[in-house]
Amino acid sequence: MNTQRFQKKAGLLHDASPLEFLPNLSRKLGPMIYVKRDDQGGRGGGGNKLRKFERIIADALESNCDTLIIAGHYQSNAARQLVGAACQLGLKSIVVCKELIPPQNQTFNKTGNALLMSLMNARLVGIEQDADYMLEMDKESAKVRKEGGRPYIIPFGGSNVLGALGYVDCVDEIIAQFKSMNMDPPDYIISATGSGGTQAGLIAGLTMKGAKTKVQGFSVLHPGPAISAIVSNLVSGLFGELKIGDQPVSEILIDDKFKGKGYGIPTREGIDAIKLMAESEGLFLCPVYTGKAMSGLIDYIKSGKIKTTDRVVFIHTGGAPLVHAYYDCYF
Ligand SMILES: *Cc1c(COP(=O)(O)O)cnc(C)c1O
User: Fold this and answer.
1) Which residue has its alpha carbon closest to ligand 1 atom 10?
2) Which pLDDT does position 1 carry in this prediction?
């Protein structure tokens, strides 16, 4: 293990993100529900990717890079946060874009994350729908080199072992925050699962702490078996990195039933969950990630899979710009 590579962070985030109790939502649904505000803090509008970029970008800086390249789409939270971090650090960024989500309205590729990326003067490179991301990023990388630059390719969604370590940090914060309230760790942590790094980091962090907390992921991108395999691989990698290889890998809980027709296609239940959270607590979830995850949590409570005596932490992974991009899907 290269300890230095593992400890070094780029300094994108400062303090622990707040952990807040949600009194009104808890009263309506039953269990005590807390929200971990990973939507708060950092540049580019914030969100869960910044935790993952802490070590990935530190690694990029270590390699003396001056241009970050990421695969994304016009409404990518990951790309928007990468561009924000690049601005902060004085690096250039290139977003290799596909229409990963079918345009949902007339302005879909111009509003929300696309608008914020334009304001940050990001370079968006559009590629064909059937083009290979890796190949296209390599091409951009070669161009940068030819012009004397030093490119660094960010892993998809920031979900490699280095990135997922950011969610080991998140577990440390959550456990310390409960401890400061004289409480044991929560029974459940709920997260929207896309590329898998968030959930993998949470699982590894909890295992390292010996906490009994279950991580329930709700897949918004991949089918269940595919994302389970991805998360499982990342967890193994993290166990190696953290030297907890002799611990049994806990069961990986991912449900893809709340994904609906596909990535970025809103569901009725997800929209209802967005409205419930907004009117109960004044917090905004999005149709792509957190709204769907919340619809899963609501279903699990109603069906008794999560009991009213359980204490639940919902990770708010960010994505507020998506609320605007999907302006006409709510009413
Ligand atoms: C990327 C993202 C996720 C998923 O995180 P992964 O680590 O890719 O699984 C969840 N919520 C939001 C808002 C995101 O942008």
Assistant:
1) 192
2) 43
